Amino acid sequence: MSWLISEEGRQLEKTIDFGNKFLIGNGYFGYRGTMEEYDKSELPACNLSGIYDQQGASWREPINAPNGLYTQLFVDGDPYDLRTKEVCAHQQQIDMHQALHQRRTVFSGKSGEVRVVSERFASGTDKHLLLMSYSFCLENTTNIRLVTGIDGDVWDINGPHLFEYSHYSEGQTLGLSAISGEMKHTITVADTLTTDFEGTQRIFETEKGIFRQIEFVAQAGQTYHFTKSIAIYTSQDVAEPLKYAVKASHSANQKGYQALKKEHQQEWAQRWSMADVEIEGDDEAQLALRYSIYQLMIIAPRNSQATSIPARGLSGQTYKGAVFWDTEMFMLPFFLHTEPETAKNLIDYRIKTLDGARAKAAEYGFRGAFYAWESQENGQDACSDYNVTDVFTQRPMRTYFRDKQIHISAAVAYGIWETFQMTGELALLMNGGAEVILECARFYNSYAYYRPEKERFELIDVIGPDEYHERVYNNAYTNKMAAYTINIAEKVLEQLEDSPTYKAALIEKLAYEQEIEQLRNMKKALYVPQPDDQTGLIEQFDGYFKLEDTTVDTVRSRLIDPKEYWGGAYGVAADTQILKQADVVLLLTLFKEEYAKEVKRKNWQYYEPRTEHGSSLSPCIYALLACDIGDPEWAYPYFMKTASVDLTGESKQFAGTIYIGGTHPAANGGAWMAAVLGFAGLKISEGRVSVNPKLPKHWQKMRFKVQLKEEIYHVEVTKEGGKVWKQ
Ligand code: BGC
Asked: In what residue span(s) does the Glycoside hydrolase family 65 N-terminal domain sit (predicted)?
C-alpha cells in the first residue's frame, strides 16, 4: 500500500495538479502525469533538463520536447477521451517502488464499455528512453481507429520554442525533429510501435506532428495491445540527434517492453534499497516521505555533465527551469547521504558555471563569484529585475532578488564543502571546487563595507532568505554564511597544503595572495548579529525589531487582492515583522552546535508565529530546529506539511495568468532532512555516524541507510535509542 500514489475518478478540475503529482522522470526528462490523448491545453510536457531557449522578449525557459506518447482511440468514429467521454471508472497511479505510471479507464459510450489500460516509465537505465504499453478491450465488436505518434504542438509558458519541424518515417518508426528559435538546438523524438493486431495503416503528417492511424474491427471481449519505444535526443547530446533517436528507439523496440521494464525495475529496486526511509507507526507519513524521495530520485541528474536540479524539478517550465539555492541547501543532503555520485554532479554544475558567476559579480562592480539567483545552462542569471507583476497595475515591479540575494554564493560554497567533507575526495577541490570557494569568499570581501566608527565589516543592502524584506542591512543569515564562506576558504587552503604545486598555481592564477591577507582581517571584523543577552533573540536584520509587530492573519487581512505580492517596496509585509520563510531559524539550524538550546528555543518561538511560510522551503526548517531542541511534536506538523506538498497540491498554481505550479524538490529534500537529520537525529562527524532520536510519539521505529565514503551504514532508531552498523 505505502508504495502506491493513486487517484480514483475523473477529477478533471485537477488535471494540471495531477500532471505534477503523477510525474515520471529520469533526470534527463520529466514527463507530466497527463493522459495519452491530451493535447497542449492540458499541459502535458516532456520537460528536458538543462536545455533552454528564449522566445521574443519573454524570459528563457527549458524546452519541452515533442510528445511521443500521444495516443487517441476512436471507437466508431468517436474519440474516447477522458475530457469528453463518460467513464464508469478511472484510476491513475504511480507505483513508486518501480517508478511506473499506470492508468485504467473504463469508458462508457454508445458502443458499450471500452477498457483502456496503460503503463509508462522513464527508463532508469537509459535516460533517452520513454516506454509505454497500452491495451484496450471493447464490450462490443466495433470499428476502431487508433491514432498514435508524436505531437510536436506542445505546451509552453513563453513559447513556442520549436520551429522548422522535419518528419521521418521508416517501417514502424516515426521521427520528429524541430529546431529551437533562440539557441538553434535540435530536439528529436523517435517512436517505434509494436502491435499485436493488424489493420489498415496510414501515416500522416501535420505541420508539427507525425502520426500513424490504424483502422480495424475490434472483436468484442478481445484485448488489443501495443507498445511504444520512444527515444529523445538533442543536439546538446550528439551531433546527429535523429540518427541516435531512431537507432535507440529501434533497439529498445527489439529488446522489448518487458525486458526494458525488468531492467528498470531492477535499477529502481537497487535505488530504493539505499534511499528508502521506513517509518513504523505512521502510514501517512511513510507514504508522504517515500513520495518525497521518489520525486528527488526522478529528477536527479545521473550520468550527466553540468546539469543540476531546477526549483520545480522537471515538472515543467515554471521558475524558468532555473537552479536556485534550493539545490545546495535543501536537496543536496539527501544525495550526499544516499547517492554521492549524484551530489558530485550537482556540485559539478556550479564548478562549470563559475565564469557565469564571475561575470555577474563584475556586472555589479564586485570581484569574485556572485552566483546567479536563477541559474541556467551557463550560469547566466535568468532572474529579471522585474520579477513580479503588480496585480493592480499589471506593471512589472522592480524586485531585487537578482541583485541583492547575495547569500546564493555562500550556498554554493557551503554545498561544495559539505560534499568534500562527506566524500573526503580532495580531487573535488582540485578539480574546481577550491577555485569556486575562493572566488565566493573574494566576492564577500569585495561586497563588505567597512564601518570605521564601529570598526567592523558589514553586509549592507541585501535580501536574506525572507524575500519580503528587500535591501536590508546585516541580515543575520547572510552575514553568518559569508563568515562561514571565508572560514571554509581558509580550510580549503589548508587542505591544499599537501599539494603545494597545485596550491601555488591556483593562488597565482587567481592573484589571491593579497586576498588571503584581507580575508584574515575580514574574518576578525565581519559583523555577525548575535543573540541578545536579555532576550536571546537574534535580530533578523538591522531595525527588524522596530518594524510593526503584528500577526500573519492581520497582514493577510490587509490584502486588497488575494494575489497581491507581500514583499517589495509597498507589500503588506514590508513594514512589519512578518517574514516569508525561515531566516534566523535557518541560521540556527545550520549552525546548531554553536548556539545554546535556550537561544534556539526562544528564536523558534519568536519567529514561528511571524512566519507566513509563503515558500515551500520554510516548514522543514522549523521541523528541523524543533527536533534539535527536543520537541518532535512541534516538528511533526511542519514535517507533514513539507512531505505532502506535492501530494495535496496545496501550493500556488497561478500568479495572474501565469502558471507557477509544479513540484517542489526543495520541500522533498526538506522532508528527508526533517526525518533523517531531525527525527532520527543523524549526525556524521569526524567519520563517525551517530543518532540522537526524537521520534514523534506515535512513531515506533525508523530504518534507513546512509553512505559515508565507500561504506554503507544501516541505521535503526526507536524512541529509546538507535543502532548504527556497517553493511
Ligand atoms: C523562495 C526562494 C526559493 C524560490 C525557488 C521562492 O519563493 O522565497 O527562497 O529559492 O522560491 O524555490
From this structure: 22-236
For the Cβ of 328 lying below 6 angstroms from any atom of ligand 1, the answer is: no
Burial class (CB in 10 A: 0-12, 13-18, 19+), 205: middle
Atom of ligand 1 lying closest to residue 666 CA? 12
Which residue from 41, 96, 66, 273 is spatially nearest to 647, judged by alpha carbons?
Answer: 96
* Residue 282 near ligand 1, beta carbon < 6 Å: no
Q: Are strands 112-122 and 100-109 parallel, antiparallel or unpaired?
A: antiparallel
Ligand 1 neighbour 405 (Cβ under 6 A): no
- Residue 179 is placed in which grid cell? 529546431
Binding residues: 325-326, 580-581
Ligand 1 near 555 CB (within 6 A): no
Q: How do beta strands 100-109 and 87-95 pair?
A: antiparallel
Catalytic residue, from 119, 377, 467, 515: name it: 467
pLDDT (0 to 100) of residue 652: 74
CB 121 within 8 A of CB 261: yes
**Are the C-beta atoms of residues 428 and 416 closer than 8 Å to each other?**
yes
The per-residue pLDDT for range 440-480, each reduced to its tens digit, is: 999 999 999 999 999 999 999 999 999 999 999 999 999 99
Tallying the residues shown for the chain, one arrives at 727
Q: How far is the CA of 346 from the centre of ligand 1 (A)?
A: 18
CATH topology of domain 4-274: Beta-galactosidase; Chain A, domain 5 (2.70.98)
Amino acid residing at 292: S
Cα–Cα distance for residue pair 564/46, rounded to 1 Å: 32
Classify residue 65 by burial, with Cβ atoms within 10 Å: 0-12, 13-18, 19+.
buried
- Enter the pTM of the model: 0.97
Domain positions in the chain are 4-274, 300-679, 680-726
The position carrying cell 549526525 is: 683
- 664 CA: nearest ligand 1 atom: 12
Name the maximum alpha-carbon separation found in the chain: 90
User: Does residue 111 surpass a pLDDT of 90?
Assistant: no
> How far apart are the C-alpha atoms of 608 and 619, rounded to whole Å?
10
Ligand 1 atom closest to the CA of 615, numbered from 1: 7
Cβ atoms of residues 155 and 45 within 8 Å? yes
The correct CATH number of 680-726 out of 2.40.30.10, 2.60.40.10, 3.40.50.620, 2.60.420.10 is: 2.60.420.10
Mark the binding-site residues for substrate, compressed into ranges. 325-326, 580-581
DSSP symbol at 593: G
467 is catalytic: yes
Task: Give the architecture (CATH level 2) of 300-679.
Answer: Alpha/alpha barrel (1.50)
Burial 607-646 (b: 16+ CB within 10 A, else e): bbebbbbbbbbbbbbbbbbbbbbeebebbbebbbbbbbbb
Q: What pLDDT, on the 0 to 100 scale, is given for residue 1?
A: 58
pLDDT tens by residue, 356-402:
999 999 999 999 999 999 999 999 999 999 999 899 998 999 999 99
Nearest CA to ligand 1 atom 5: 311
> Residue whose CA is closest, atom 6 of ligand 1?
615
